[in-house]
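Same chain as my last thread, 453 residues:
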Amino acid sequence: MILDGWIAQRLGVSALTRGALLEWQRRTLREIVARASAASPFYARHLIGVDPSEPGTLPFMDLRPLAEDPLALLCVPQGAVARAATLETSGTRGSRKRLFFSDEDLEDTKSFFAAGMAHVPGSRTLIAMGGERPGSVGALLGEALGRIGRVGFAEGPVSDPSAVLGRIAALNADSLVGVPAEMLALARTPGAGLVGPLRSVLLSGDAASRPLVAAVEAAFGCPVFRHYGMAETGYGAAVECARREGMHIREADLLVEVVDGEGRGLDDGEWGEIVVTTLTRRALPLIRYRTGDEGRILPGPCRCGSVLRRLEVRGRLDDRLTLPTGTVRLGELDEALHALPWLLGFDAAAGRGPGGVLLRLTLYSVSSSELERGREAESAVLGIPAVRDAWRGGTLRLECAIHRRPDGLRPGKKRILPLEKFPSAPNGSCGTSWTASGETFWSFHLLKRSGER
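reply #2:
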């Protein structure tokens, strides 16, 4: 019940009940629709004639207004904006969206961070997320930790895992917060087992596969918690409790739905697109915003006793590869490749190539590489049924490279990139070649069609 007490205090009740929470959401939804319609030129047009007592009838919105005319969504004077964030994210596919936050909005985020982190063990936390600017996620988390008597160290994104491990030891940090892919790189860098003992790791900013969570837990010998949030939700949306059976939603501030491709609401347990309404946002509220993230509401209550619904997220809806044999999600590549014990991380790119679809993978390892590494990677990727069937049918070419360079990781979220944005093998080679040079070991081979190997 990590958030229930905090939300009860927000609602002015002694103990949080589902009924009290639903009444709060109904009232705040009516208020935000009325305020947005009156204050925002965009919402004045977008919400004409709506009935806020029927949330499922309100029109959806997506990222386009945030990219095309964000000031038209603003519901406070520009002088009341405490932070403006311009983001070019994986979800926008190149569009730059702009978001605005008031002091009150940022205060709500810090309050949520403090409540959520209160149950995560640790007193000295290294924050491996962007925090160089006031109001950024790392800065807000650092302030929140101070409120609960803890110390936060702003590290920023991880690009050199060995150096970050050294700073963890030097700072005597006993907990970490970071992006899943970067925490995996830390966990599998030589020396990770000498750090600590750590008391917890919190993964945020991207979906985390089961093998990744298991690897981080094993390396650092501590529990791993997951958090879901994005700039549109005020950076925080849901966090796991000690049971770690789904992320409890920040339901006093967010109304979360899951819908299918046609916008129809789905039952608990069904996967679909996450839709959020920011019930208490002052500067730039979002009403039925289609996030582009895939998730589901877990059925039933959590064993911790909380009345809050729980969310499970498995990545971006558009991060997938469509093949004649089916669709392959980035999360499926994560599940297959993160299980390789020597893998630091990987990059993926896809596009049309000669004879069909080309999937290009670059895998990173700090250990010495040899032919066996390539075979293990090949076996892992071909364990995905749609990939295996397309490859056998000759409609998919798969290129794999293993890159040994400890400082070669690109920090941040992992996405399936267009081929033109992704480097090929050295000198553009293909076929089968295994070469080593200094700190870079390339094992680049083309997996041929069945019968041609």
